[in-house]
Amino acid sequence: MVGEMRQNRWVNFFEGFIVVAILFALLQTFFEDFAIVAGWSWSTRRMLVYTGFGFDLLFTIEFLVRLFFALSRRHAFEYLVHERGWIDFLASIPLLLLNSGPEVLSLLGGVSLAGAVGGYTSMLSIVKAIRMARILRVLKLLRQIRNTESTTAQRHISKVSIIGVSVFVFVILGFGLLDAFIPLPTISDTYGQVPQRIISYVNAADLGAEGNEASLAQYAASEPMLLLVKSADSTRYSRFGNEYYATYFGPSDYIYLSSGKLGFYFDVRALNADQSLNNLVTFGAILLLVILMLLAYGTHFARTVTDPVHVMRRGMSEGAYNLEARIPVRYATDEIFQLAELYNSHYLPMKARSGLTEESSVLDVGTEDISDLIKG
Amino acid sequence: MTTESERAREFVLRLLSNPALNDFADLQKEEQIIRFLRTNAARLAPALAGHRFFPGKSWQEIFPLLSEALYRMTDRQLLPELKSIIGGDISFSFMPFLQLPLSRVPDVRNQITAFLEKLLANGLARREFTGAYAAIRFRVIDRYMDEVFARKSYVHFELTKVQRLRLGKEEMRGMIHATLMLKPAVHMVAARSLDEQRGRSRSIRHELAETIAHALRRQLPLVPERLIRSAVNTGLSFTDNRFVDATSRIAAIFAARCRSYHPRMGVDRGADTPDKSWMSTARRNHRFHGFDIRMLDEFHNIAAENGW
Question: B282, B308 in Cβ contact below 8 A?
């Protein structure tokens, strides 16, 4: 008994901790993209990348723990399919292995993930697609938060929310993956052609040669993507000072391409910001969808299904309970309210005539409540 | 060593301290506990027959001990409160309209108080007094009379034009409260006759009402005839007796309503309010109870509009 209570306390603590972690993880997801759109410093963004990795690791552990216990109780299928284990999975391991894990490794190794713009944009599509799975964590909250006393309402609202959010996420994820393997005509393609065009022009006009720095600078002014041109021994052109690069540029903010003796650095922050803005829009839409499901649909469902059922159930099971089920005029033709009408107009009067109401006590006390008196 | 009555008192005290009973009037608490004891007799009997309470006694012996203790404890609270209600809370300013000088009102108060003390010793009348007392105690009539006088609709017409009570709102409340106070007298005076003449209906026959009124006049010589009739006629079915006073009809409705009245009853989402629900159900059962359906309609509308 004591052991069971202690175990329950641990389970409650664990579930509470996970709820808090999910909320913080959602904030982190929002701020990671917002930081890119707002042009926050690299040190701040790097911290957000590390915390994102931390959350992915945490939810991976959570998933593995839940899976372990499900396996040990021989109901892994039940957990994965009916208890939303698949959400736990999608919002943990793929993110850790394909998104935040490689990102952190590249940071620790000090290397950029992208070698070429073409490769960069297709990789960005995959990463973006996988990152969408983070938003599935909103659905994990549905398991933890009870917004209604009715289990029926809770289950229905969860189901509808999961369908809505999943469709949203999987469509975006699907298109993201499709884009990575079968390039679709997007703005990234146009964007991806710019570096090659710049390199070709610089080479053709020999702007990288010594003595042409002024012409190169003049040309670079018209090409905002061009950050830096280096030869083997010197910097031919640089848009910003070193301090600026150190403060605002991380490995994913630029790409490096070489041509002959020249090395070119291109600014891809605008492309990243565009992707992040899309992510924020998706994030906001999903969050709003879930909130509306919980508040608007949840309230509607309770009002038109579970509340009248609850009132009728109490009326039928408790002798002293004689409140009528309220029938909103707008929904009076609903089957449930037709039933409520029968309850109000037939069952309650019959119950009152039978004297059941007057025979029942509201005294909510069982013999166990007075057992100390009885046993002495 | 404690006596049986002390043990019964201890047990009843524990039941009375249940938070579910906090907001009820004394007689309602008593009724709830009696119902609880009856409903749970099978479970309580073996436990209470143990060495701690009433060793070796049967439920038939235990129940009277508990109910006696309960009545005593209720009376200790109820009688002073009743005196205070009759002595001051209820306005007897309507008496002059019933041809009784105001100077006699204190005597009437005393006579009614003494009568009620006697009435409470009668089990059936005591039970019937539960709803009437709760209606007075929670001043349910007051707020409905405010609305009745504001609307000046059917109920007001029945009171002032049909029953011809040329009374103000305060006096009218007093008259209905006094009717409620004396309503259970029907059950005290003619308990046996009631048992014999009642079928499934709760109403009494007109002839029996006449007999009861006659008996009551002897017991309450100072109380005006119209008030006694108003009280006795609460037992008549309006369906069968269209002449029943409006005050009687109102008192009958609210005595029944307030038997299960809870001043702070929580309303579930999806449920209608308590008064509205009760009035609505009573409308559908008006023939069974002998209530005036048009009065119920008006009270139902009042309850609906005020969220009662």
Answer: no
A320 touches chain B (CB under 8 A): yes
Same domain, B37 and B151: no
Residue B106 and residue B255 in one domain: yes
The last residue of one of the domains, among B51, B80, B109, is B80
Do B100 and B66 share a domain, yes or no?
no
**Chain B residues with CB-CB distance to A374 below 8 A:** 47-48, 50, 52-53
CA dihedral B73, B74, B76, B82 (to 10 degrees): 180
pLDDT 10s digits, B247-299: 999 999 999 999 889 888 889 999 999 999 999 999 999 999 999 999 999 99
Task: Say yes or no for a CB contact (<8 Å) between B52 and A308.
Answer: no
Chain B residues with CB under 8 Å of A324 CB are: 271-272, 276-277, 280-281
DSSP string, B106-143: HHHHHHHHHHHHHHTTSHHHHHHHHHHHHHHHTTHHHH
Which of A45, A64, A14 has its CA nearest to residue A53? A45
Residues B146 and B240 in one domain: yes
In a domain, B272, yes or no: yes
Helix (H, G, I), strand (E, B) or coil at A238: strand
Q: Position of tokens 């039928």?
A: A316
Q: Model confidence over A280-336: pLDDT tens digits?
A: 998 899 889 988 988 899 889 999 999 999 999 999 998 888 999 999 999 999 999
In this structure, the answer to whether residues B44 and B116 fall within a common structural domain is no
* Partner B contacted by A74 (CB < 8 A): no
Domain for residue B85, yes or no?
no
A372 has a chain B CB within 8 A of its CB = no
For chain B, the domain total comes to: 2
Question: Domain end: B46, B80, B114, which one?
Answer: B80
**Cβ-defined contact of B269 to A357 (cutoff 8 Å):** no
Is this model's pTM higher than 0.95 or not?
A: no
**Which of A325, A364, A365 faces B271 most closely, judged by CB atoms?**
A325
The residue of chain B nearest to residue A309, with distances taken between CA atoms, is B270
ipTM of the complex model = 0.87
Chain B nearest C-alpha distance from A350 (Å)? 8
